[in-house]
Amino acid sequence: MNYIGSKYSLLDFLTTTIADVTGITQGNDLVFADLFAGTGVVGQTYRSLGFHVIADDIQYYSYVLNRHLLGNTAADADPALLEHLNALPPAHGFVYENYCPAASGRMYFTDENGGRCDAIRLELNRLLAAGEITENTYYFYLAALINSIDKVANTASVYGAYLKHFKRSALQPLRLEPLPVVDGPVGEVYNRDISELITDIHGEILYLDPPYNSRQYNSNYHVLETIARYDDPQLTGVTGLRAGNDGRSLFCSRRQVERVFDALIRDADFHFIFLSYNNEGLMTPETIRNIMSRYGEYRLFTRDDYKRFQADTADNRNIAADTTVEYLHCLVR
Q1: Fewest C-beta in 10 Å: which of 163, 259, 281, 304?
Q2: At 318, is the secondary structure helix, strand, or coil?
Q3: What is the DSSP letter of 192?
Q4: pLDDT < 70 regions, the chain
Q5: Are 42 and 17 within 8 A, CB to CB?
């Protein structure tokens, strides 16, 4: 997924730096915590290196993706089920009724793809409730649906708005394609407030990749959140945002971010703590250094000319630069 803050293109920088600082190159069931897990690219990398990965994210679609990437094995795949789900006729469910043009005028998906998404989503719920599939298999194919439906979304990468005309990729038929199965220790995945979870876990390496700015993920990816939960929420506005403030992060608040970050570092029971942040974040490098230095030995690593996330939004149209400086802040206790 083309995801805000994704560290896919920074994996070499992250893994090399973390190995250099910690002296640990193979997990051997040591604990690596990825507590703003997003789409799971960092966590799955460390699972493949043999770490016991603990992942957390306040967004439920992230929980679904990481539940598969860190919790499933090849034994949870069911090729016959995949064929069955892809052969289902479209259904007129919540996605069709609220995110497709025929029923709502919203153009997140074509009517056909919205109906296919509903059919798969409803069938997965039915199969799980009937005990015909395991919970692992349920998340195996729900994660596949989240990833696959995103490929045919009629958006400029995020779901803050839909395009006025269907782009070529959005006209392709939805086809469920499984995410990879990662070989490594089965991990733990949570959908909790990080400020509460941090006091319940401990380990060797903690990796933090919080939101850098005021853009809330719950509004940028609200459609994926609804497909993941499939909870028939009340929608508001032209773009059909989920009503309420569920999934809002205090790390996106200029008034709150320093306080919650300090508390997080203070409460973290990990020997090594790494924080990804960039030069345009709500907290300055000096602020981060001052906070982290209170709790141990501080070091800083940088990666220049990191390509900015691109989406056709007002925020990005008002920014001239197309690259940023990525910082990896480190604390050793």
Answers
A1: 304
A2: coil
A3: S
A4: 305-323
A5: no
